[in-house]
Specification:
It is a single chain. With 316 residues, the chain is of the alpha/beta class. It has a single domain (47-314), classed as 3-Layer(aba) Sandwich (Rossmann fold), CATH 3.40.50. It has helices at residues 2-30, 34-40, 48-54, 113-126, 143-161, 173-187, 221-232, 266-278, 301-314; strands at residues 77-81, 84-89, 98-102, 129-134, 166-171, 195-199, 255-260, 283-288. α6 (173-187) links the parallel β5 (166-171) and β6. α4 (113-126) crosses α9. It is globular. The model is unreliable at 17-26 (pLDDT under 50).
Length: 316
């Protein structure tokens, strides 16, 4: 019996060692962690069938709940701004910044678990405040409904905390929304926030690099162009309010942009970064080789590293 137990333990140990060796080999050969490789292939790519099924969906998304498995370090209260649901957690003290987080989801998906998890992580690590608006989404609303409410919320926050304590952060559609809001503020002579953090921002709703489509295991440029046109409603999809890559970058606050080199938005993000630098914006581009869309939110070593960098930015 003892001999059999020893043999079983030796077999298990051999399997564990083999898994470790294979994992290390994958990292050395591919350059990404095994977790990142698995995650990159775990998202189903958006299809035209998905678009046709979801377009025109008038489901009520005006009220959501924080997942029970996510715990924030301080009370997260809720209120409404013009009917828009807002989640709001105060900072540890008056020295900490306020992060206004604008979630992604192609303007028709609501908060995901990854959004809540990342916000909770930053709140715990930095002591910052969190403000997370559940802004109007397709297909009940368009950009014309969402932007005024977000501007109203921002101006309320400025009165409460001052612009110098506010960081606006967004991923994907929320990243494009963040940049568009900042451009709108500048145009309306509204005081800019302290900093912008754009995570894989969707800066041109008619863009996307077809040459990277094969590498991007999640996004579908053809589908997104249709969704972006829907979000624009009766406006030109290349209006900077919808596609801020075409907007004026002059006078924008310091900005950090994150992008994987294997996402279809990569080329548009690089072009936006270059426009920012040419306009004199204090901008930094963080590129992750072979990583995909919104990789800083992924539960993998590369994502963890990016989230720690963003925590440092929050505390600057």
């Amino acid at each position: 019996m003892k001999k059999r137990t020893k043999n079983v333990l030796r077999t298990l140990l051999g399997i564990i060692v083999a898994i470790i060796v294979i994992g290390v080999a994958i990292c050395l050969i591919d350059g990404r962690s095994p977790q990142a490789i698995i995650i990159s292939h775990s998202f189903p790519r958006l299809s035209m069938e998905d678009y046709e099924r979801q377009s025109g969906d008038m489901s009520d998304q005006t009220t959501v709940e924080i997942p029970s498995k996510v715990t924030f370090p301080r009370e997260m209260r809720q209120y409404r701004v013009g009917g828009m649901q807002v989640f709001h957690m105060e900072p540890v003290d008056d020295s900490k910044p306020i992060v206004l987080y604008i979630h992604g989801g192609a303007y028709y998906h609501n908060f995901s678990l990854h959004h809540w998890t990342a916000m909770a992580e930053w709140a715990k690590e930095t002591g910052c405040g969190i403000v997370a608006p559940n802004y109007p989404l397709l297909y009940c609303y368009t950009v014309k409904d969402a932007h005024p409410l977000m501007m109203q919320l921002y101006q309320q926050l400025v009165k409460q905390y001052s612009a110098g304590r506010i960081i606006i952060m967004g991923d994907s559609a929320g990243g494009g929304f963040t940049l568009a809001l900042s451009q709108e503020m500048r145009g309306d002579s509204i005081e800019q926030p302290k900093h912008l953090v754009l995570i894989s921002p969707w800066v041109d709703v008619l863009g996307g690099d077809e040459a990277l489509q094969e590498k991007d295991t999640f996004l579908n440029a053809e589908v997104l162009r249709k969704v972006g046109t829907d979000w624009a409603g009766d406006m030109d999809p290349r209006d900077p309010m919808i596609s801020p890559m075409y907007g004026d970058m002059q006078g924008l606050p310091p900005t950090d942009l994150y992008s994987g080199t294997w996402e279809i938005f990569y080329t548009d993000i690089v072009n936006t970064f270059n426009k920012m630098k040419a306009a004199g914006v204090d901008a930094r581009l963080h590129e992750a080789k072979k990583m995909g869309h919104v990789y800083p939110l992924w539960p993998c070593p590369e994502g963890s590293k990016a989230r720690k960098e963003i925590a440092d930015i929050i505390l600057q």
